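pls design
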């Protein structure tokens, strides 16, 4: 996907016959991923970021698992360096609203027919280029789960993301506001109960105790 083609300097994949380039007049990760949902032809779909090096072996293992498990509609792997060494999350486990917040798009593989049959797409209010600059994957997965789709996480590394992701930023007020917006979108009326639990879990990540307390109360900045 190439967004804003009038600003592009040419087709980055012009010399490759195995790659189709789609030019979009929209801006934002979620618009790009929705276009992929509409135009992809394969049974399984991965949403790759341009600043991540993918592990084809890991992605193949995700695809093999989906192919062998027709009861599953999506699976998730891990970025290098983030797979836990022990505990429940270190092994294969069912995905739910409680444990899906860490998943970024390149770690996620979906069974495209199951998703499109239910008309589910990425909420364009979320993600880089949208109103809220993160959380598009978590919102998307939450919508999948609410639609009755099932997913699993596998202890499989699918790539490396060398640059800092927006989910690792804790000093930016806009990012904190986006986190609150994601929780409201995912948990609805229960979000005020989630804010303090999240603030407690990440209390060491906030720039100050005051920032953590304000987040617990549903405020940022």
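designed seq:
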């Amino acid at each position: 996907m190439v967004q804003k083609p009038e600003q592009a300097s040419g087709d980055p994949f012009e010399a490759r016959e195995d790659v189709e380039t789609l030019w979009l007049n929209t801006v934002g990760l979620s618009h790009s991923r929705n276009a992929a949902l509409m135009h992809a032809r394969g049974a399984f779909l991965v949403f790759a970021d341009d600043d991540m090096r993918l592990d084809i072996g890991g992605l193949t293992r995700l695809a093999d698992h989906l192919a062998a498990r027709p009861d599953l509609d999506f699976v998730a792997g891990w970025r290098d360096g983030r797979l836990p060494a022990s505990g429940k999350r270190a092994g294969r486990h069912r995905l739910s609203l409680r444990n899906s917040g860490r998943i970024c798009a390149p770690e996620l593989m979906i069974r495209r027919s199951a998703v499109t049959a239910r008309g589910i797409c990425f909420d364009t209010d979320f993600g880089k280029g949208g109103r809220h600059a993160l959380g598009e994957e978590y919102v998307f997965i939450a919508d999948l789960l609410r639609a009755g789709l099932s997913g699993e996480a596998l202890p499989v590394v699918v790539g490396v993301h060398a640059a800092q992701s927006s989910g690792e930023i804790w000093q930016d007020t806009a990012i904190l506001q986006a986190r609150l917006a994601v929780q409201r979108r995912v948990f609805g009326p229960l979000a005020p109960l989630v804010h303090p639990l999240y603030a407690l879990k990440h209390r060491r990540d906030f720039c100050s105790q005051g920032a953590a307390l304000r987040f617990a109360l549903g405020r940022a900045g």
